[in-house]
Amino acid sequence: MDCRAKWVAGGETSDPIVISSRVRLARNLKGIPFPGAMSSKEGSEVLSRVATLLEQKAPHGYEVFYMAKMPQVERLALVEEHLISYDLANKTEGAVAISRDGATSVMLNEEDHLRIQALLPGLSLEEAWQTADSCDDFLEAELDFAFHEDYGYLTACPTNVGTGMRASVMLHLPALVESRQIGRLLAAIGQFGLMARGLYGEGTEAKGSIFQISNQVTCGIAEDEIVRNLKAVVEQIKAQEQAHLQKMVALQRAKIEDRVYRALGLLTNARVLDSSEAMVLLSELRLGVSAGLLSLPVGVLSELLVLMQPGVLQTVNKVNLDALERDIKRGEIVRRRLLEVLGREKQ
Prior knowledge:
By secondary structure, this protein is of the alpha+beta class. The protein has a domain at 250-346. The chain is 48% helix and 16% strand. Strands 2-3-4-5-1-8-10-9 form an eight-stranded antiparallel sheet. The longest helix has 45 residues, at 223-267.
């Protein structure tokens, strides 16, 4: 069972708090209306020009997936891997180009003509920026992007004008949630030009105590400054999460250990496991790793976070399942993967 996204399948990270880092660049082709106003013919032109370029000339090689040719469940799987947005999944005229190494994806005809994004494991903002910027340089050498000398890159949404950059970090913050400090902290980051969203971005909830922190301002600030500011704030948030977690363990170690090992027991024995319960239990395991109470590779927890999702679960295993069948398959996948890892550690 394999995931396409590098933040899940590639790279090693020992950070249980910072799950992944992403940099996204919004770009539009000069002389063609934004996707919301362009004709079907113009949309097809964007797809043809950019997809051909990425498939045939891009240094790392890309595979293009057209939404109109994909079953709904496979589109959902791409959302769950964070390779595309919900908006693109619902656009039959859209497509996504995914690099062979799974580190970069280019969404076509979403809100903008192109949305270049690099997504990597752990706190890797600089590397993600360099990866996205490299793809951007290649495309800009071949395409004429809409650009204004005073305003910068022109985008469909005015909030993206300028650099067109959105940098974000996915964080697991259970101690801040339980200590009821998360609301205060998330309100405070607004003073630094940042915002918090749920697991799948804007308009989604923070399932499993997972939050995405990203920049709000894209104009009048350089790309390296956006990355530097976000990284500094994330490091502060991480330090606060660690401090609250240490306090929790010091005050109620037995209770925390009991929670963690109950979760491990359920996940390694459950035969029927729904997605909501799985999210909660995997969150408990990640908390245990963060607190130093449980030894498990962080990468496996990120892998399971994706493999247990309904779209990925069916797509990777090449089966169409109803709700109960998905819950049974999910229990099997999680149970086997954890027992495999625990078995290796015992040897």
